[in-house]
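Q: Fold this one first, please.
A: Sequence and structure below.
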Amino acid sequence: MTQVLYYNYIEQGGYLMNIFNTMKSMEVNYTKTDKEICKYILRHFDTVVRDSLTDTASVSGFSAASLTRYAKKLGFTGYDELKYQLQRDTISETTENSEKSLPDQYANLFREIERRYPTSEIKPLALLLYHADRIYVTGFHNSSASATLFNYRLEELRYTTSHLPYDEAFKLDAFTRKEDVVIIFSVHSGSYRDVVKQMRTMGSECPKIVLFCMDPKHVIRSKTDMSFVLPDEHTIGYDHYLDPSITFSYFTNKVFHELKAKD
């Protein structure tokens, strides 16, 4: 796990401006796209430092060319050099501190889920799934495993359901109908923007669309019939990355509790 710090300490007894300060200080020269890229990098730091340029472009919705131009605006020769500097300017939290705090932070996260989504808020979703002719579940990148598990558990309850890899989700308008439900797992990214836009062209035959995410300003939230915004580390004031799959799992357990109550 990593913690984003805004200064690197050097032996001479001072502080050296690092990439995070540079990004902030250059804001006056940013275009609208630059501002969005900067915001995305800071918010999704843990995945940005791990993923390739192609993967980041796919998940974030920005083109590889835009990401490369942004890196060059900061003074780097290209995106890879920017990513390398991001990795360098990160200080790892000690294992001891992580072990002491991590269970408490997940407990805080779960408490926030309970506060946001008591049983009364889960029941409408359970009812929608209970009456669906068929359920389609999809998730991309960090959300893929959660989508797969959700679909598997629906199968265990003998629901008519299918898990769709991201690329197959673009075919949903060809075989879904208004009696169906499509569930999208998407932490923050706009990857499903075109999928939802395509389904909405079906008019009255469009299936119900449900979004599980962690961003109240998620780009497809306003286009869905039902959305559930789950808390993340920022919500509870924690500096370290918390695994979204654990958050999704806790929430979907609440959903399955309601579905089982209907059987």
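Q: Good. Now the second chain.
A: Here it is, same layout.
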Amino acid sequence: MQDKAIDTSRLKDSGWESFRPELFLNEPGRQARDQSAFFLQLLADYSRGKQVLEVCSGAGKLLIQLARAGYDMVGLDLNARMLEICKGAMAAEPADVQRRIRLVQGDMCAFELCQEFDLIILEDDAFALPLTQEDQISCLTAIARHLKRDGYLILCCTTPQRKLGAQGTPGYDPIHQIETEQCEWAAVDEGGNIQTIREGFERRRFVYPNELELLLRIAGLEPVERWGDEQRAPFVDPAKQEYCYLIRRKP
């Protein structure tokens, strides 16, 4: 992890300083979520190497799973608390798995790792955290700098189709495609009962697929595949609220 002072204002702008990471991580649905099979199959199908970067790696669940499978992982995240949780999880892993993981505290829109990667992962709607088109282009440009010539980016987003409503829609700015939402977290108490905790807020900028494809081209990238979910189903129904792109550098 980096020791020098880092601008963490993006955490405040997006709401990530307004709630405890444990509330996000301990929701029953998130605990059950397992993306490893999807990404391992992508690596098997498309990657010629073992160097993988996860942008916004958070508590490192996917990072550790891929390291267990033999991939050399770099986890980039701006949130120091999430990185500390990840370090705690890594400590329970065998030494060879720990050696395959490097953690870096850094801004997804302005990072320089002096390394190129076979696969870069940006998923779980993390691309919605930069709240302007300019910042989203900066994020994609930074990613493009770190992709090998034959490397790929996998980017998963949600479409604003259901969110884009009238000007008066509570919590949604249709001009800038930004949703501000007060957070309600599902937590399990000692008796196994699910309770709701209201703490903090999230602010996200939603991007249409066609808009994303333009942002990619501006950043020197191009889409190769577009799927409707992480099972690679065809993208035919925007109401599903999810789409995944396989992306490479433009020739």
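Q: Anything worth noting on the second one?
A: The longest strand covers residues 194-205.
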